């Protein structure tokens, strides 16, 4: 009896502390959901349902451009199966995690907030660095891709030299300027760009129907083995970044409802945007898998509809690259904005324009880093980007599961309707694939990623030192998780 009384007395302070932590977390989440500072608690949320769908669309896919290498690696049939299964096995779990946590933590920063509350500031800073580096490397590829397409008209732009350098830097600066206009402009701009980039594929699919012969999709790779590594990397490259829009959750109107609906619509839109053109192009042309090099999709459109459709499809690639640049630049900038809000970066990154709410310092910094990265060689760098993204997403899944354990009573406006064991099972399939991407990356990628990770840990330590010594100004978050 006395032992039971003693145990009860000892457990009461622990329960009280847990309740206090829960109460403090609720207050912190409510404050983060309202704006960057208390004085901005009623700030205008600028992203509605339709723009959010197209922002997600451009952050993940931007159209069917780029799947050609999958056909070349494994043939049409396996590519069709891959783009049918992968959005479900990968996109749906990631979307459900994003929908629940973006609604539960409706502030800017997204996955950085989740890791910070789950495992502490170091985890939030490390995840933020991994994802940020991955995104800016991808962003840097889009002006270069535009220059490659323009090279068909102006050959000097496609060759190394001043013309190409000027085009890449000029495109980066020009496209970045649109982000200064605010998320409302970027969101509706993404909607217009999305419709324009999808239009030629709608026509191509419709025109291909009478020409389709299903047997053409059974063509096999001949004279060599199927390149499964290239196949899966191509699928991954075309269908990642489902969580990127979460960094702008503080700008989304009614995020508790909007995120779930927008992600569901985006899964359908993205799956259809790959499957329908792929079915049309592989069923209506006689090309062997070896013919499917980058850009062949435009050639297939020309075979199906004529030269005018080929050129329209090529122009759509430029439009798509612009849309992906805008969406991912916004995501990267608001991630820095959210990290400053958490006290992980100096408060200067929390600065924003009064009229548009644009995090102009974060956009400027991201633009400068993008220009610097654009001059690097991309062979191992892109592989490193995928590696860092995979590591970050594994930490994100861990944060999702641990938050269910750590804060079981946290208000979750959207709640994935599964118990913890089922949630773990749901995360296993994408986690296995992420682990595969890391394992096959190669020693050079391991070395680069290890160096960048060490740099990220060092950067976090430096920021803590600057904060404690008051060398730079930092926001002091109400809770560190």
TrEMBL record:
Domain of life: Eukaryota
InterPro entries: AA/rel_permease1, RMV1-like
Keyword Cell division: no
Compartments, record wording: Cell membrane
Coiled-coil boundaries: none
Any one Gene Ontology cellular component term annotated for this protein: plasma membrane
Segments for region (Disordered): 1-42
Listed Polar residues bias regions: 25-41
Pfam families referenced in this protein's UniProt entry, alphabetically: AA_permease_2 (PF13520)
Membrane topology listed for this record: Multi-pass membrane protein
Transmembrane domains' residue ranges: 73-90, 135-158, 165-182, 188-209, 258-276, 360-381, 387-405, 417-437, 443-462
Gene Ontology terms, MF aspect: polyamine transmembrane transporter activity; symporter activity
Chief subcellular location: membrane
Biased composition (Low complexity): 10-24
Keywords: Cell membrane, Membrane, Symport, Transmembrane, Transmembrane helix, Transport
Family: Belongs to the amino acid-polyamine-organocation (APC) superfamily. Polyamine:cation symporter (PHS) (TC 2.A.3.12) family.
Protein name (record): Polyamine transporter PUT1
Protein species of origin: Triticum aestivum (Wheat)
């Amino acid at each position: 009896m006395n032992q039971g009384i003693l145990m009860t007395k000892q457990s009461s302070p622990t329960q009280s502390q847990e309740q206090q932590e829960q109460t403090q977390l609720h207050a912190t989440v409510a404050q983060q959901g309202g704006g960057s500072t208390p004085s901005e608690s009623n700030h205008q949320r600028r992203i509605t349902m339709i723009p959010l769908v197209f922002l997600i669309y451009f952050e993940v896919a931007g159209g069917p451009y780029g799947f050609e290498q999958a056909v070349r690696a494994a043939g049409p049939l396996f590519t069709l199966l891959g783009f049918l299964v992968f959005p479900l096995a990968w996109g749906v779990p990631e979307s459900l995690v994003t929908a629940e946590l973006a609604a539960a933590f409706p502030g800017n920063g997204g996955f950085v907030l989740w890791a910070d509350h789950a495992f502490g500031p170091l985890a939030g800073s490390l995840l933020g660095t991994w994802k940020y580096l991955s995104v800016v490397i991808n962003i840097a590829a889009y002006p270069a891709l535009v220059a490659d397409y323009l090279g068909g008209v102006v050959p000097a732009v496609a060759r190394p030299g001043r013309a190409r350098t000027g085009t890449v830097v000029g495109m980066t600066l020009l496209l970045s300027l649109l982000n200064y206009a605010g998320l409302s402009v970027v969101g509706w701009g993404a909607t217009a760009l999305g419709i324009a980039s999808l239009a030629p594929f709608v026509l191509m699919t419709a025109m291909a129907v009478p020409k389709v012969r299903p047997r053409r999709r059974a063509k096999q790779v001949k004279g060599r083995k199927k390149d499964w590594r290239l196949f899966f990397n191509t699928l991954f490259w075309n269908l990642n970044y489902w969580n990127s829009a979460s960094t702008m959750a503080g700008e989304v109107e009614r995020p508790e409802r909007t995120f779930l609906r927008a992600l569901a619509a985006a899964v359908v839109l993205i799956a259809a945007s790959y499957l329908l053109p792929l079915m049309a192009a592989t069923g209506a042309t006689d090309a062997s898998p070896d013919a499917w090099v980058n850009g062949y999709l435009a050639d297939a459109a020309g075979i199906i509809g004529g030269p005018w459709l080929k050129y329209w499809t090529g122009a759509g690639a430029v439009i798509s690259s612009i849309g992906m640049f805008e969406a991912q630049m916004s995501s990267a900038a608001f991630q820095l904005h959210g990290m400053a809000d958490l006290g992980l970066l100096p408060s200067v990154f929390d600065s924003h324009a009064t009229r548009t709410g644009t995090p102009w310092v974060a956009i400027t910094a991201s633009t400068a880093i993008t220009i610097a990265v654009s001059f690097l060689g991309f062979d191992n760098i892109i592989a490193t980007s995928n590696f860092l993204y995979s590591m970050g997403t594994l930490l994100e899944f861990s944060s999702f599961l641990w938050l269910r354990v750590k804060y079981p009573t946290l208000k979750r406006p959207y709640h994935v309707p599964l118990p913890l064991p089922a949630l773990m099972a749901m995360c296993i399939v994408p986690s296995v694939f992420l682990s595969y991407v890391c394992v096959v990356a190669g020693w050079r990628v391991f070395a680069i990623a290890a160096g960048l990770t060490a740099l990220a840990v060092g950067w976090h330590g430096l920021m803590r030192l600057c904060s404690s010594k008051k060398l730079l100004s930092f926001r002091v978050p109400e809770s560190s998780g």
